[in-house]
Here is the input.
Amino acid sequence: MITRRNFIGTSLAAGGALALPGSAFAHVIKPSFPLYDTHGHFYTNDVDTYPFNSQTARYGPEIMVAKAMRFPQRPKEVLAFWDECGISKGAGVQYSSTYRFDNSYLLDVSAQHPDRIIPVVILNPVDEATPDTLEQMAAENNIAGVRFTGVPQNGEYVFLSDAAQPAWEAANRLGLVVVLMPIGGGADAMAQIGEHAMRYPNVQFLLDHIGFPQPWNMPDTWGLTPQHIALADLDNVNYKYTSLLIEQLHSQGVEEKPFLENMVETFGADKMTWGSDVGNTPGSMFGWVQYALGSAEGLTMQQQEDLFFNTAERIHVPGGRGM
Here is the structure.
């Protein structure tokens, strides 16, 4: 079986089957249904038109800029990868590591490919202008949602604070999907997300990377806290299974197939989506898609279709669902 080390490389360009070692998979999995990628990042090396703001980059701004200049993730590259893997459409998720709150490039490429790239922007959750900006972007740019992410400050996530309430009210009024990535979040963050899900029932919550469960630390529950498991009772909370999460499982020696099966048993495939994390997770993107598809082979066909397309299509509504 291929190891994580075989996959991790320097290029983030779309990788085809020929980029994989011959022993990587017994066969190439070609699903009979289309895929919906809920986690695609777009950025260009045209820095004159779209200057970088990389202060929040995971590996430091210098490395992020160097990566983006050498391996840009324009529609040319990402759509070629999507075509190769049978991905019919996807959510273009604003990449904070390159542009932070400047969504210009994402909105431009989604306008050029409206049938394939559905924009999910990133805005400052406590900026007074954010509610009006969401209204404008829903009407003019057909955004499906907004993403809030970050680490806690003084024990509190800004996007879950009272100061962010106007942004949440706007998202609820518009019927947007709100993608959440509480970095370092544990039981307290999951409990707060549950409270928000009940307070804003017209928002479709999408928990990035399923909230980063750590089955290597909590094997009995596959890394899920009681507060995490309690979210399964809320109809408007959904969960994103990603290449980044599979990479983390590999790094800890955890098999992704039983992990995914447990997540589906806990939350339901009709509340789960899949995302490639193209533009962020390093290595052969074709290979990561194969890992994801392989991990789902024990699910029913209906569950696979829900995970890889139906749930994403249902919750990502361009312009929002309205009230």
